[in-house]
Design brief:
The chain is 71% helix and 2% strand. It has 15 helices and two strands. The chain starts with a helix and ends with a strand.
C-alpha cells in the first residue's frame, strides 16, 4: 500500500512537471491560436482602410502614410498600454509588409512585447541576436530623418533600457537627438547608466537638477524627478534591476513624450491621430481584453474572439 502511494505521488509529480510549458511552447501556442489569427486579420483590414482613407483626405503635397508606418506606430502604442500580445502580433504583421524598409523595428517590438508577456528569456535571447546583427552592420550611423527611422531609434532606446544595455540606449538616444529637437533623452539615459554603473546617488543628483532646469518642459521635468525617485528607492545591490524599475515607472509616459515630439508637423499630428483611433476599431473598444470580430468564413470558428 505504501509503495503504491509513493508510485502514485511520483507519477503525479512527473505529470505536473510535464505540464510546465517552456517559453518557446507558450509562444508557439499563442501564435497558433485563433485569437492571434483574429487580431492579425482585424489589424490588417483596419490599417489598410485607415491608410487609404487618410491618404485620400490629406493634401497630395503632404506626407502620405503607408502600412509600414501605421503598423509600426500601432505596435508602439500597444507597448505604451502594456498590451504585450497586441504589440507582438503587430510586429509579426509589420514583418509581413512588402518592401519593409526598417526590418529592425519589428524585431525591437517583439523584444519589448515578449518581456511584457512574461517571456523574459526569449526576450533576452532575441535581444542578443539583434545586438549581434547591429554590430555586424559596420559604420552604420543613420542620418535619415524619416519617421520610421525615428521610431526605430525610439524602440532601440526602450529595448536597451529594458534589457539593461545602456550602450545601445545611449547610442540610439544620441542619434535621435542629432536628427530632432529631442534633447532630454541623452541626459536621462546617461543618468540611468550612471546608476546602473554603481553610482545611484550621483545619478539621482543629476536627475533632480535636470528636473529643476528650465531647459525642459514641465512633463519632461516630471519624468526626470520620477526617474530619480525610482532609482533612489531601487535595490541598488541588483544593478540590472534599476533600469527595469525605471522603465516600469516612466516607460509608457516617456514613450508617449517621444512620439509626440517626433510627430510635430501638422500633417504628422493628423497621421498620429489617425493611428491612435485604430486600437478601438481593431479590438472593439474594450480595455483589459479585446473582442475581435473578423469577417466570418466557412472555417473561421466563433465570430467573437477574446485575447486575454
Amino acid at each position: 500500500m505504501i509503495i503504491r502511494s509513493v508510485v502514485l505521488t511520483l507519477v503525479g509529480l512527473l505529470l505536473v512537471g510535464c505540464g510546465t510549458k517552456t517559453e518557446e511552447e507558450e509562444l508557439a501556442e499563442f501564435k497558433s491560436s485563433l485569437r492571434y489569427k483574429a487580431y492579425w486579420l482585424a489589424s490588417d483590414k483596419a490599417v489598410d482602410v485607415a491608410v487609404a482613407a487618410y491618404n485620400q483626405q490629406v493634401d497630395p503635397n503632404s506626407m502620405q502614410m503607408d502600412t509600414e508606418m501605421a503598423h509600426s506606430l500601432l505596435g508602439v502604442l500597444w507597448f505604451m498600454q502594456q498590451k504585450g500580445k497586441f504589440c507582438y502580433i503587430e510586429a509579426d504583421v509589420l514583418d509581413d509588409v512588402e518592401g519593409l524598409e526598417y526590418p529592425m523595428l519589428p524585431r525591437c517590438l517583439r523584444i519589448l512585447a515578449l518581456y511584457n508577456m512574461g517571456l523574459e528569456q526569449l526576450s533576452a535571447s532575441q535581444y542578443q541576436t539583434l545586438k549581434e546583427d547591429l554590430a555586424a552592420e559596420e559604420g552604420t550611423t543613420p542620418e535619415e530623418v524619416e519617421l520610421e527611422h525615428k521610431l526605430l531609434l525610439s524602440a532601440l532606446i526602450l529595448v536597451g533600457l529594458q534589457q539593461g544595455d545602456l550602450g545601445i540606449a545611449q547610442f540610439a538616444a544620441e542619434t535621435l537627438e542629432a536628427t530632432t529637437q529631442i534633447d532630454y533623452l541623452g541626459p536621462l539615459v546617461g543618468a540611468v547608466a550612471k546608476a546602473q554603473g554603481g553610482h545611484p546617488i550621483e545619478a539621482c543628483k543629476e536627475l533632480r537638477e535636470l528636473a529643476q532646469s528650465e531647459r525642459f518642459r514641465g512633463h519632461v521635468r516630471e519624468l526626470m524627478a520620477e526617474a530619480a525617485d525610482t532609482i533612489e528607492n531601487a535595490d541598488t545591490t541588483d544593478k540590472g534591476q534599476i533600469t527595469k524599475e525605471v522603465v516600469a515607472a516612466v516607460g509608457a509616459r516617456l514613450t508617449k513624450q517621444i512620439i509626440d515630439d517626433i510627430f510635430t508637423a501638422e500633417d504628422q499630428k493628423t497621421m498620429l491621430d489617425t493611428v491612435r483611433k485604430l486600437p478601438e476599431k481593431i479590438t472593439g473598444g474594450t480595455d483589459e481584453t479585446a473582442s475581435l470580430t473578423p469577417e466570418p468564413k466557412e472555417d473561421s470558428g466563433p465570430e467573437g474572439v477574446v485575447i486575454q
